[in-house]
Every structure is written in C-alpha cells, then in structure tokens.
Design brief:
Blueprint (H helix, E strand, L loop, with lengths): L1 H14 L6 E5 L5 E5 L3 H6 L1 H12 L5 H31 L9 E6 L2 E6 L3 H7 L4 H17 L2 H28 L20 H6 L10 H16 L6 H18 L8 H17 L6 E2 L8 E7 L5 E7 L2
Helix pairs in contact: 3-11, 4-10, 4-11, 5-10, 6-7, 7-9, 7-11, 9-10, 9-11
Length: about 325
Amino acid sequence: MRNAVISACLLSVLCAPAAAQTRTYTLKDGSTLEYAKPGLWRTIGAGPSDWGLAVKQSFQKENLPWLAAIGASTVLLIKYDQEIYEETQRVGKRLNISRVDKTKTYLKVGGVSIFRGPSDLGSAFYFIGDGWVNLGLFGYFEAAGWLKDDWRAAQTGHQLAEGLLVTGFTTQVMKRVTGRETPRAATADRGVWRMFPSFKDFQAHRTRYDAFPSGHLATCVMTMTVIAENYPEKKFVKPVGYALLAALSFQMVNNGVHWASDYPLGWAVGYGIGKAIARGGKTAAKRGAPVAPSAVRFAPYLSPEGAVGGALAYKF
C-alpha cells in the first residue's frame, strides 16, 4: 500500500504541467509588463499565427474607418503622385540633397560587398530604411537580453526578428501582385501597373514592379511599433521614430524609389504587424493596468492651538 501511494505521488509530480516561467517588469506609472521565458525559434515560429492575427485585427469593425482612410489617401495620392515626385526633387535640389543614391562600400570580404553605408545627407536618409538599422536594433536588444539576462530586451529582439520576416513576406507578396513601376523606371506619369508579373521577370527587372507598397517604410514602422509597445515608458521612441520615418519617406521619393501613394499601405502593414507581434503569439508580453493612487493618505497636521500631529485623509 505504501509503495502504491509513493508511486502515485511520483506519477502526479512527473505528469503535472510545468509551471509557466514569467518575469514581471513594473513601470513608473504602476503598470506591469509580464514576459514569458524568451525563445528565439519559438517566437519566429509564431510568425504565421501573428500574421493571421494582424489580418484579423485589421478587418475588425472598429478598424474599418482606418482601412477606408488608407484606401482614400492612396487613391488621392496616386492622382497627384507625379506632381509630388517632381516637387520633392525640386525641394531636394534647393536643399542640396542628392537624388542619386550615394551609399558606398565600407567593408568587403573576398571582393564581395558586405556593408554599404551613407556618404552624404541624402544617402544617410535612405540608409534609415536600408535594413542595417533594423538589424542593428535587433542585435542591440539580443545582446542586452543575453548580457543582462533581461527577458524584456530579449523578447523585443526576438519579436524584431519575427517582424522582419513577416513584414518582408507580406510586402513582397503585395509587390508581386500589384507590379507598379518605381518613379525612376516609370514609362508613364505615375508609373505603369503590371499585375502578377512572372517570378523571373520580377527578379530580372525589379524597378518595373516593386514600388507598391513601400517595404522600407513598412519594416521601419514595424520596428518602431515593436519597440514602443515593449518600452511604453520610453517616450522618445515615437517622436524620434516619426522624424526618421519622415526623412526616409522624403528621400525615397527624392531618389525615385517610391511614389508618395506607396506609403499609406506600407505604414499600415508595418503598424498592424508590429502590434500583432507585440501583443499576440506564444511569447507575447501581457501588460497590466496602472495602479490607481491610494484613496487613503497620511499628512502632517497642525492644530489651531499649535499642537503638531498627523492626520489620515480618505478620498471618496
């Protein structure tokens, strides 16, 4: 009997589900962020489900006005794309911002260019969306997570890796469906649309087909959104992000990579994917509500007779 009880106890311990490992980060406003133990491949593996979550959230009833705004703004910008493109280049010329991509190779390995970076203001603006900035931020958060055993930083890095893959996949599918010419390859005002180009033709003549939507902008918006969602107390993230996105957007029109109408959908894709990745998936953080200030307060008290003491105040 005793052996049977011991066996049953051992069986219950072995079969019991493992307790979830989480860490909670408390912010200054009293709200909390709870993170599961980071796992890079687990996070990347959540890509398909997070992509589905982004699509589902985008078509929820409360987001339909935003979808209408994206569609309307895209149509309106298409109408004025040629004028915006030409005026942007005139502004760039007045400000001495080159409309030619002047990034240059700084690192070669075996004759192969490994790293290309900016050499003037225009190429610096364009470099914001080149991919190295996003990869650098991914590396920063991954390193911080590993060196400091910081689950929030590690989770943010993992989510950025997932976001780069999901955003890249989404924008590539859209580009290969719409097939719009870039401004510098345009054979007509506002560019020609050649829907569903062949894979071979797309690869051989990318500038004929890959303008819409902007993958550069989508990736950068996703990056900013993931960081802002994981570090809501860092108030500088969005203002700095918006300023950099504005510089990037200007230069991509100035150097003929994108039309202005390529931006609304690119922004929406990046924002939707960033929000879904930060909130959904298997390893998403859970944010707690801010702690309300206590209704009971202690304060020093001085009576009219000059006696010193303390008082409890209750607010209701």
